[in-house]
Design a protein that fits this description.
By secondary structure, the chain is an alpha+beta fold. It is 39% helix and 12% strand. It has helices at 42-63, 65-71, 73-77, 89-94, and strands at residues 23-26, 29-32, 81-82, 85-86. The longest helix has 22 residues, at 42-63. The radius of gyration is 18 Å and the shape is flat.
C-alpha cells in the first residue's frame, strides 16, 4: 500500500491506480496505489482530518502564529510557507526555491 502515491509514491515500482482497478503485481508483490484513498470514505476521512488538525488551528487562532510557533514545535514544523517565504526545506528543494529557516 503506497499512501503517498499522490506525492510521487514511496516505492520504485509504484504507479497510480484507481478505485475501479486498484492493484497490480510486480515481481510477485501486490501493489495498491490508489490516489486520494480518503475519497473512498469522504465523511470518515473528513472527520479524521478535522479531529487531527482543528486543535492546531484553534491554537494559532487563540495565540497568533508567532506565539503558537514558539510554544508548539509541531505547528512550527508543519509550516511550508510563512510570510511569503518557503519555510520547509523539502518544499524549497523540490521546487528549486530559496529556503528560509524560521
Amino acid at each position: 500500500v503506497d499512501v503517498a502515491i499522490d506525492q510521487g509514491g514511496c516505492f520504485e515500482t509504484s504507479k497510480p491506480t484507481t478505485h475501479k482497478d486498484p492493484i497490480y503485481i510486480v515481481d510477485g508483490v501486490v501493489h495498491y496505489c490508489v490516489a486520494n484513498m480518503p475519497g473512498a470514505v469522504a465523511k470518515t476521512s473528513t472527520l479524521a482530518l478535522t479531529n487531527a488538525t482543528l486543535p492546531y488551528a484553534v491554537e494559532i487562532a487563540n495565540k497568533g502564529w508567532k506565539r503558537a510557533f514558539k510554544e508548539n514545535n509541531e505547528i512550527k514544523l508543519g509550516a511550508n510557507v510563512v510570510q511569503g517565504k518557503v519555510a520547509c526545506k523539502g518544499v524549497a528543494d523540490a521546487f528549486c526555491m530559496e529556503y528560509c529557516k524560521l
